[in-house]
Amino acid sequence: MLIAAVAGGLYAYSPLEPLVIYIIALSLTAFALCSYDKAVAGRGATRVPERVLFALALLGGSLGLLTGMFAFRHKTRKVSFRVVVAVILVIQAAGIYWFLAIRH
Question: What is the pTM of this model?
Answer without folding.
Answer: 0.76
